[in-house]
Amino acid sequence: MEQPLTAGDRPKAPSGRTGWRRFRPASEAVKAFFRAPPVRAATAWLLASYLRLTLASMRWRFENREPVDVAAAAPEGVIGCFWHGCIGLAPVVGPLMQDKPRRVLISPSPDGEFIARVVGRLGFPALRGTSALTDKRRFLAGAFTFHDAMKFILAGGVIVITPDGPRGPAQVMPVGPVAMARVRGTKVFLCGLAASRVIALKSWDRTRIPLPFARGCAVFVGPLTVPKVSGEAAIEAVRLDWQTQLNAAQARAEALVRQA
User: Fold this and answer.
1) Which of 13, 38, 60, 145 is most buried (most C-beta within 10 Å)?
2) Does domain 32-258 have CATH number 3.40.1130?
């Protein structure tokens, strides 16, 4: 009778990068397939088209919209923040910005490239970088992006940030958006977004993809500002306050869409 192979008898993957590619797990092969430029471009087009049609089919409620309309009509630039998991719902706020130019801060990662393609097709061109600024390496890597974002704001544009992206932890506000708003006293709006019927992905942020004809809600908080002269403790207090307020707005939006 044939004996089962022991761990020592099982064939080993060949050493060296080229040999190992033949034995990559199926999940890695699938990931590589979807990251191929032609596949990524086609998938981004399909997702953007789906979101455009779905968001248009939904019944939307906007809470505390008046200050947003005032800011959209003013010449000054603003910063908008929503949690990364709501990125599939966020394009609905685009029309509220009227003719104001806008950019979305998106990480330079491969996944960020895909998101940039999707939101770009939905009227939100990307500015590649990170708002985390949680360590020296990230701060230096994002210095040029920070500078470009400030120039865009000074020209009257809107910078949109998902503060907890690209890796989380989910719904935790880093100091980056506070630092950006502090430079010129830029007004900041926080936005909670929810839909009554969604597909929640099994990702770190539980990304929500809305389903057609659902009820949607956007809850705005702001405008908020940061004093120019602030110590480290004061900046941390603002960061924590914004995190609390954005989580409250998110909870409020989710509660409203659950109502009959």
Assistant:
1) 145
2) yes
